[in-house]
Design brief:
The chain contains six helices and no strands. The model has no long low-confidence stretch (mean pLDDT 94). It has 115 residues and is mostly helical. The chain has one domain (2-10, 22-114). It is globular and about 40 Å long. The longest helix has 19 residues, at 96-114.
Length: 115
């Protein structure tokens, strides 16, 4: 499902316009993928995990961290995008399986961009 999702996202002009910047690659070099993954888990839990998150639709910055860029590139930036792209209903908390899918999707995108 990750490959299928990334393929669909690559056809979106907006979603495919996001890329890691050099300073983000340096950040990954410094911190490592395990730390970036732990940040992805935290961000998904904080910004998406619960029903009706604070400032939904505006809660994910568009700069400063590789996970934030990945969230926009992968349409995982808000509950509205999750519903539109992945048919995950906004009216409930995310399941553990959905959170794991999102984190794995984000990390796959980041690893591709990192190369």
């Amino acid at each position: 499902m990750i490959e299928e999702s990334l393929n669909r996202l690559s056809k979106s002009t907006f979603r495919s316009s996001f890329h890691l910047r050099n300073y983000m690659i340096r950040y990954i070099d410094e911190k490592g993928m395990d730390v970036v993954r732990s940040h992805a888990v935290d961000f998904v839990n904080q910004k998406l995990g619960v029903y009706n998150p604070n400032k939904d639709g505006k809660q994910t910055p568009m700069k400063n961290h590789p996970v934030f860029i990945a969230m926009h590139a992968c349409a995982c930036c808000c509950r509205g995008c999750l519903e539109k792209w992945y048919h995950i209903p906004k009216e409930r908390d995310l399941t553990q399986e959905e959170k794991e899918f999102i984190v794995n999707l984000l990390m796959t995108w980041i690893k591709r961009e990192y190369k």
